[in-house]
């Protein structure tokens, strides 16, 4: 925000986005609004070189959620330029969310700050920080890293974004971290089990899990014993269904990614709570990939699975997919990874399935 500008209230954020994009507030006007945006295609840059470089300060934004000074807002959040832009900026993935405080107070003001830290030709990395006004000062609560992509007015193909010009050592460091993050994401995508075999370390983990469940009396794949203070993985699942109503749409008339994240988090939290026997606290969120948009009216199926435990930490994976009742087809839309911490002892997750036995057999 430019120096001297009034603070941006959280309730005005969506209105400001609509003004920039030129989106309608009426769901039924969506088709007309999209046809109007089609005419903006001529404004798209043919190359990134045609766009002026911008600084990180150009994208800095500060938004306030006054839970302390405006008590009427608390019920909603308790638990929990005058021109149109030809670009459609959509969320590609949430790279990471780190919780720095486990307690968020319902009666203290919250401040969000963020800015662009790295850009490619059509993609943008942005960092967001959340802090809360406690005991006379703002205290960090969480840090998040998002990757956005620029699309054309119809959201059908990629579009170029302005290059970023770091200023000073601190901004140069942030930019280099963005480059490293991109390289890490590429490396992780090529290391998927769908593409390459497990590493030696992963093989050892699976083999150790197998030995811990082996019945030493029979030494048989079919004879398995659940170790003490453990739960079979197949018994650590929770599923849910959401009907996607227009009230949860974004400015492009698709289901808002934040709504999907919230529903996935709530299901993952419920699973971790049931598994650990207490109310867990969120530690981190990793690699939320938005593979496909979710249309209004969709049947959204959510499936959570406790997939790993270490000490009092619980890793939960939530898979979301859209089910088409007419074609009977399922299409994956998102995969979420949540890390929780439990304050009640250590409970281990272990495997019992034919697939697991086959994997161990191959490893052996």
From TrEMBL:
Single Gene Ontology BP annotation: acyl-CoA metabolic process
Alphabetized UniProt keyword annotations: Hydrolase, Repeat, Serine esterase, Transit peptide
Cross-referenced CDD domains: BFIT_BACH
Every HotDog ACOT-type domain range: 234-346
Source species, domain of life: Eukaryota
Claim: Hydrolase is one of the keywords in the record: yes
GO CC list: mitochondrion
Keyword match Lyase: no
PROSITE patterns xrefs: HOTDOG_ACOT
PANTHER family: ACYL-COA THIOESTERASE (PTHR12655), ACYL-COENZYME A THIOESTERASE 9, MITOCHONDRIAL (PTHR12655:SF0)
Similarity field: Belongs to the acyl coenzyme A hydrolase family.
Annotated protein name in UniProt: Acyl-CoA thioesterase 9, tandem duplicate 1
UniProt source species: Sander lucioperca (Pike-perch)
């Amino acid at each position: 925000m430019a120096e001297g500008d009034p603070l941006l209230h959280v309730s005005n954020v969506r209105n400001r986005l609509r003004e920039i994009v030129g989106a309608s507030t009426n769901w039924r006007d969506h088709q007309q609004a999209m046809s109007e945006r089609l005419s903006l295609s001529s404004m798209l840059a043919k190359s990134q070189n045609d766009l002026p470089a911008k600084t990180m300060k150009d994208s800095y934004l500060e938004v306030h959620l006054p839970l302390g000074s405006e008590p009427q807002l608390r019920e909603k959040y308790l638990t929990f330029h005058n021109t149109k832009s030809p670009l459609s900026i959509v969320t590609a993935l949430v790279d990471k969310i780190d919780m720095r405080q486990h307690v968020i107070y319902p009666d203290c003001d919250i401040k969000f700050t963020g800015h662009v830290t790295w850009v490619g030709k059509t993609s943008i990395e942005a960092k967001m920080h959340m802090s809360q006004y406690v005991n006379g000062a703002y205290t960090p609560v969480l840090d998040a890293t998002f990757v956005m992509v620029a699309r054309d007015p119809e959201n059908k193909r990629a579009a170029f974004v302005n290059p970023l010009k770091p200023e000073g050592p601190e901004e140069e460091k942030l930019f280099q971290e963005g480059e490293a993050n991109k390289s890490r994401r590429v490396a992780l995508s090529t290391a998927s089990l769908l593409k390459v075999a497990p590493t030696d370390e992963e093989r050892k983990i699976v083999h150790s899990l197998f030995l811990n469940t082996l019945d030493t009396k029979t030494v048989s794949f079919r004879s398995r014993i659940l170790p003490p203070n453990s739960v079979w993985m197949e018994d650590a699942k929770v599923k849910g269904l959401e009907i996607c109503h227009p009230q949860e749409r974004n400015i492009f008339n698709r289901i808002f990614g934040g709504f999907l994240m919230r529903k996935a988090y709530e299901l993952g939290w419920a699973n971790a709570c049931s598994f650990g026997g207490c109310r867990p606290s969120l530690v981190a969120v990793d690699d939320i990939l938005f593979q496909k948009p979710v249309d209004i009216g969709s049947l959204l199926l959510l499936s959570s699975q406790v997939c790993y435990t270490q000490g009092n930490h619980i890793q939960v994976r939530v898979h979301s997919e859209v089910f088409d009742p007419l074609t009977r087809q399922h299409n994956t839309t998102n995969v979420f990874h949540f890390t929780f911490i439990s304050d009640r002892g250590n409970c281990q997750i272990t495997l019992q399935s034919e697939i697991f036995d086959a994997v161990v057999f191959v490893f052996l």
